[in-house]
Write a structure and sequence with these properties.
The chain contains 14 helices and 19 strands. The protein is an alpha/beta fold.
Length: 409
């Protein structure tokens, strides 16, 4: 294995989760007797550029198929985040009506709907047919394709050079990260700005967030690695902020390397220094993550077994990729976890990949009244526990497994 950014050949171990099916490949009931394809889920770190990355075992189309079932708009708090982003970017960069915003990985239009309402000229890039269709239903223009240098250059030629490009939770999802980043350098106007949001590797390690590892995540990112990748591909980082999303994320602001505006702010050096102080430039930082993941797995599995012995019914909320990683690493089946509730109609009535646990509507939660409800998307714990507060009426309690097994009041 060689590094997908710098070509380095020394890849140190970081995390080995055995094998698993793609986390968003939900199984229809009609196909429940057919076999699933399982792929190794092994992650290593390049000791030269510090890019943490999965080993490749399948093409990207396997993981981002036409039936891709992740729709961003089912989280009200994430919608609020997207709406605030549009307002903040307009105010900071003076984006008036007619300014062009291009979102890469536009998903179901969760963000561009607010940009369009604000009078911005919008274009979304989205390779999955299911979410692209939902975005078009909102009246948005969507280019159904994977983004990279060739498409970025084509957008500029076709009159879509961007004042602002948004890339939320997609930088980690691309196998050819160099080509992807070059696309932004081609598509931005000379003084345009691109923002990238992604979970911060520092928090992933500190909080034992191993369940954010799955095949669709080709990279696990620090500013140290991202700044190097950007510099090599025509972009310059000029600011970075933190957000609480997905267990703690970075929002990185970048401009073209030849841009004469957007001076580099002190926040960049401060974050790089913070990562260095945490040990992220040293191999030792990455070596203990495997045992941390195994501790989470063992605590979760012990909880399920003890609950069954005590006669307690356990269900879960959120048919999220995080949950699928945890379930398959722990080897959990429907005998230990009865069902998973999800708001997304595209997931309801299916079976989780690997574990084959049924995904049901919230009505089933109300009728079955499980004593314990595991929240798989722990990053949305506050939103979900408020939404499902009624489980306390029958003595139900919420549970999260990461960073350690916690039974909430």
């Amino acid at each position: 294995m060689t590094c997908r950014h710098c070509g380095g050949r020394h890849m140190a171990p970081f995390l080995d989760l055995g094998t698993a099916p793609p986390s968003n490949s939900y199984v229809s009931v009609a196909e429940r007797h057919r076999p699933e394809l399982w792929y190794p889920l092994v992650i290593r770190v390049c000791t030269e550029c510090r890019l943490v990355q999965t080993e490749d075992f399948a093409e990207r189309e396997v993981f981002f198929s036409g039936s891709y079932a992740y729709f961003s708009s089912f989280s009200s708090s994430w919608l609020g985040h997207a709406k605030r982003y549009v307002g903040e970017m307009q105010a900071r960069f003076g984006l008036g009506p007619g300014a062009t915003i291009v979102e890469v990985a536009a998903n179901d239009g969760y963000l561009l709907q607010y940009a369009q309402a604000a009078g911005l000229r919008c274009l979304g890039i989205e390779p999955t047919a299911s979410t692209a269709r939902a975005a078009r239903d909102k009246g948005l223009e969507i280019r159904e394709d994977f983004f990279g240098a060739e498409l970025g250059a084509a957008l500029a030629r076709e009159g879509y050079a961007a004042d602002l490009m948004a890339a939320n939770n997609v930088l980690a999802h691309v196998p050819d990260i160099n080509d992807f980043v070059r696309g932004f350098a081609h598509a931005l106007k000379p003084e345009g700005v691109a923002t990238f949001e992604f979970p911060h590797l520092l928090n992933m390690v500190r909080e034992a967030q191993f369940d954010t590892a799955y095949h669709e995540h080709y990279s696990y990112l620090s500013l140290t690695a991202v700044a190097r990748i950007f510099s090599a591909n025509g972009l310059r980082v000029f600011d970075v902020t933190t957000t609480p999303w997905h267990g703690g994320s970075l929002r990185v602001f970048a401009a073209r390397s030849d841009s004469r505006t957007h001076a580099v702010l002190p926040s960049v050096a401060e974050m790089l220094a913070r990562e260095q102080a945490a040990g992220m430039l040293e191999e030792g930082f990455y070596l203990g993550f495997q045992s941390a993941a195994e501790d989470v797995r063992d605590g979760f599995l012990s909880f399920l077994i003890e609950s069954r012995r005590a006669g307690l019914t356990v269900a879960a909320y959120g048919a999220a990729a995080k949950g699928n990683t945890l379930l398959n690493f722990a080897g959990v089946k429907p005998d230990l976890l009865a069902f998973v509730v999800d708001k997304n109609p595209a997931k309801q009535g299916t079976l989780l990949p690997g574990s084959r646990i049924p995904v049901v509507t919230e009505d089933v939660l109300r009728s079955e009244k499980p004593q314990r409800v595991v929240i798989f998307p722990w990053n949305l714990q506050d939103e979900i526990s408020q939404q499902l507060s009624y489980i306390r009426d029958w003595g139900g309690r919420f549970v999260t497994a990461v960073p350690s097994l916690t039974l909430h009041p």
